[in-house]
Amino acid sequence: MSDTHNPPIQHGPGQRVEQGIPVNGAAPAMPDTSTPPAAKPGVKKRWLYLILVVMFLFVLMPYLFWQATWFGKPLNDAQMAQAFADTQHPRNAQHALSQIADHMENPDPAVRATAKPWYPQAIAAASSSESALRSTAAWIMGKDPGVPEFHETLQKLLADSDPMVQRNAALSLVRFGDVSGHDMIVAMLKPWVQTAPVEGKLSVRLTPGETVSVGTLIGRIETAAGKVEIRTKMPGTLDQWTVKDGTPVIANQPIAQLDPAADVVLNALAALYFVGHTDDIPTITPYLRGITGMPLSVSQQATLTLNAIHTRADMPATAKP
Q1: Are 255 and 195 in contact (CB under 8 A)?
Q2: Contact present, 301 and 266 (Cβ < 8 Å)
Q3: In this predicted model, what pLDDT tens digit does every residue of 21-63 receive, in sequence order?
Q4: Rounded to a whole number, what is the distance in angstroms from the first to the last CA of the chain?
Q5: Strand locations in the chain, DSSP E?
Q6: What's the whole-model pTM score?
Q7: DSSP state of 74
Q8: What are phi and psi of 64, to 5 degrees?
Q9: C-alpha torsion angle, residues 106, 112, 117, 123 (rounded to 10)
Q10: Residues 150, 256: Cα–Cα separation, whole Å
Q11: How confident is the model over 302-321, as a mean pLDDT?
Q12: Residue 115 and residue 106: Cα distance in Å, rounded?
């Protein structure tokens, strides 16, 4: 068997090897049988500490992310005031608005009363430059239909530039007995058409069937000045690209179609239970059947909504609400 550790000995002309010893009398190198030096005790401990630190970070980072994104952490009055005053971090104000909503829905009248002092901040948030704050403000205003200022603000938000704000305003107006957002609610049951933000060449990122949230990057538009991102404005499922990848497009051209998310459909059906009419039946009927990706609660709510619409249609005009 060849020695894989030491290179073979090269012999010159006339040189003989007897029992592993060259003729010139030079002895071959003997293998090193000495014991290798023991590792320093501190080395193993340092590795152990490093492993423990890494494991701790694996636990800590998700916790910090959860703390930063979870709106369930209670805020005291000072923290609420600070959150609304912090214009650099709108998510803090969104957290405060979420707490107001929780208090508004609390069964304890004393807790509900603690939300009222913050109503002016909720109205102010409806004028924020951040669409997420306007959307949240529109959502919570429907929880107290006894406030005229909320009603007036919601009517203005129906014309907001962001479709999510428009939809939340339309849903909240139903609580006021206001049907001015009816058409917007019906549209929530239909596919959403995504348009190109600018002129350029389309570069798709997602494939049909993938789930998206508000702000999900689904593709880009390649322009002479660089790439412009295409982000969804609605939650749902990418149904199809209506323009092929690599095709030139113009600004505001329809390029994709998204099916609505289950919670969007549920909210729309629940609102139409109160304000729907017979013209809405063709749009609601498909949800009676089991649709892929939709929970059973959708078909159940569709049944309830259609029954309510038929009941109202059969009522004498003077008896309708």
Answers
A1: yes
A2: yes
A3: 344 444 444 445 555 555 555 556 666 666 666 665 555 444 3
A4: 100
A5: 17-18, 21-22, 192-195, 200-204, 211-212, 217-223, 226-231, 236-241, 248-249, 254-260
A6: 0.75
A7: -
A8: -65, -40
A9: 50
A10: 35
A11: 79
A12: 10
